[in-house]
Q: What sequence folds into this?
């Protein structure tokens, strides 16, 4: 509907079957001052068709109530049902108030009571434009309202969406918060747990950062005899025995650089009152406050070490007993040479003969050499008997092996055991004590000797020669030794047991069962490993490895 058109010319569709009334309608507009155009229609159906075909041809529909075939009110309802966008005005007869009310209720825009002689006709040109205007206003208002509602609905929807989003975010935040709280709680708990663990630990625990103690537990403080406030901030080298400072420092530097360094080792410590203590220490590189640090665990082994030293010393004595026979064989040789020399001198003297000068020089030189050899053997025995060096040194592992076979070689030969030494030259040294290594090798060789001397080994009557094969080589940065025999071997069930102290299968008086357990301890002290590979009836093979260290 176009309001400008409405104002220029009022286009009326009049549905009126009464000729007289229709004429009066026309006349009323002719007299009025409104520009107009009236389309007459007698039948309700015609009117419906016209409006449905093109509603924009009219500004208002005026319907008489009394129509043939259909009442004006029903026609109005029909228009309304078809959503006709035009204002509808019902012409009713006098005294039909209820009809008028029903019409308004149904949605008709207005009604006009036909009261002849009452001047309703004169009112028509004034009232109708007013109705059209009001209708237009209403339509516009409704449209605005609709638009407003739509906008409102959209807004509402957006608000709802945003609210939902906010709710979701809040929910998520809440969840994250609870989670964080839980994590903090867990962290606090675990920190508490750790500090309780650290506090109640029997091991000394400390953290060293940049060479200074930044944390120490109670046990650590007790071991060194300091109070904890005294320890925190102290330079950690003060706790190390002066003789061990250099190599421990070297190791620390390596570890902090991420290079391979022994993570467990024994060293001497220095207490507050200057006492030397022995500690075993396990170190790990950690992050402390975002910076690299060393977390260390220490145990005071001063006492157990003293006991162990006693035990080792005791077992060494039994090893020495084993060696005595070998030494006797070894000493026999130089002694008989010296005897030959002495006999020669005595015979010459008896016969009153002069010994030529060169001969005298030669024989006495030979005798001196043999004495030197005997002295060497005796010195070696004496050397072996002394307590082991506390501080490990760089040892070429072939050297104690050769010493062992110098002592025991003869004994083995006598028993028909062939010795094969495959010693690789140019091995890197290992950090150990040569004497102790010798003790380990003697025990292993004696074990092999005993195993091959065992009657069991010869039960099958085979004549194959018994052989002891000793091999040294380098493997994955380690120095390795294997000592393999052709004895009866070690059964699977005993492979762990044989390293236990006092485990022996030998007769009372022959074995102590300490050899392997002490060897195990010694090898462990130097960061090495020992294991046995064996198949029953194929002999036993003991493999020992030590970390290789730099030459020089
Ligand atoms: N080379 C070997 N072949 C077979 N059995 C072995 C060998 N070495 C050790 N054993 C077994 O391990 C046991 C423990 O050895 P060890 O600790 O040296 O004590 P002991 O020699 O005093 O018996 C031996 O009694 C023996 O049964
Ligand atoms: Mg033994």
A:
């Amino acid at each position: 509907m176009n309001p400008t058109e409405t104002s220029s010319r009022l286009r009326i569709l009049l549905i009126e079957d009464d000729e007289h009334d229709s004429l009066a309608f026309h006349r009323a507009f002719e007299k009025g001052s409104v520009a107009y155009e009236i389309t007459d229609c007698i039948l309700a159906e015609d009117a419906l068709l016209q409006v449905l075909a093109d509603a924009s041809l009219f500004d208002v529909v005026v319907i008489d109530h009394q129509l043939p075939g259909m009442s004006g009110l029903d026609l109005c309802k029909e228009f309304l049902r078809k959503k006709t966008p035009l204002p509808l005005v019902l012409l009713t007869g006098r005294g039909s108030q209820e009809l008028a009310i029903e019409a308004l209720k149904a949605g008709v825009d207005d009604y006009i009571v036909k009261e002849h002689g009452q001047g309703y006709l004169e009112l028509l040109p004034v009232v109708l434009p007013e109705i059209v205007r009001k209708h237009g206003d209403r339509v516009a208002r409704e449209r605005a309202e609709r638009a407003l509602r739509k906008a409102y609905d959209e807004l509402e929807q957006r608000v709802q969406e945003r609210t939902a989003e906010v709710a979701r975010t809040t929910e998520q935040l809440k969840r994250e918060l609870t989670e964080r709280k839980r994590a903090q709680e867990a962290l606090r708990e675990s920190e508490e747990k750790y500090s309780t663990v650290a506090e109640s630990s029997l091991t000394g625990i400390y953290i060293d950062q940049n060479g200074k103690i930044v944390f120490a537990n109670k046990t650590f403080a007790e071991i060194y005899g300091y109070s904890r406030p005294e320890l925190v901030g102290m330079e950690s080298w003060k706790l190390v025995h002066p003789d061990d400072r250099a190599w421990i420092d070297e190791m620390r530097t390596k570890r902090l650089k991420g290079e391979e360094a022994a993570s467990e080792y024994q060293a001497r410590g220095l207490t507050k009152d200057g006492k030397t203590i022995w500690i075993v220490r396990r170190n790990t590189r950690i992050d402390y406050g975002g910076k690299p640090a060393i977390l260390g665990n220490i145990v005071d082994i001063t006492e157990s070490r003293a006991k162990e030293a006693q035990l080792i010393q005791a077992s060494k004595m039994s090893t020495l007993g084993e060696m005595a026979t070998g030494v006797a064989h070894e000493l026999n040789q130089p002694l008989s040479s010296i005897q030959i020399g002495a006999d020669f001198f005595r015979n010459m003297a008896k016969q009153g003969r002069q010994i030529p000068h060169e001969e005298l020089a030669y024989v006495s030189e030979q005798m001196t050499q043999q004495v030197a050899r005997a002295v060497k053997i005796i010195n070696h025995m004496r050397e072996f008997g002394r307590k082991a060096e506390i501080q490990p040194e760089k040892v070429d592992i072939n050297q104690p092996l050769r010493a062992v076979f110098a002592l025991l070689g003869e004994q083995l030969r006598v028993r028909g055991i062939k010795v094969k030494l495959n010693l690789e030259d140019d091995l890197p040294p290992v950090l150990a004590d040569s004497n102790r290594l010798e003790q380990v090798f003697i025990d292993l060789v004696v074990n092999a000797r005993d195993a091959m001397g065992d009657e069991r080994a010869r039960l099958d009557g085979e004549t194959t020669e018994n052989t002891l094969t000793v091999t040294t080589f380098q493997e994955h940065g380690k120095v390795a030794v294997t000592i393999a025999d052709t004895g009866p071997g070690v059964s699977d069930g005993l492979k762990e047991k044989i390293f236990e102290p006092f485990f022996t299968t030998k007769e009372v008086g022959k074995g102590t069962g300490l050899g392997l357990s002490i060897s195990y301890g010694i090898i462990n002290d130097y960061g090495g490993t020992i294991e046995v590979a064996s198949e029953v009836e194929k002999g036993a093979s003991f493999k020992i490895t030590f970390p290789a260290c730099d030459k020089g």
User: Anything to note?
Assistant: The longest strand covers residues 276-288. The chain has three domains: 10-145, 201-300, 307-547. The first helix runs from residue 3 to 8.
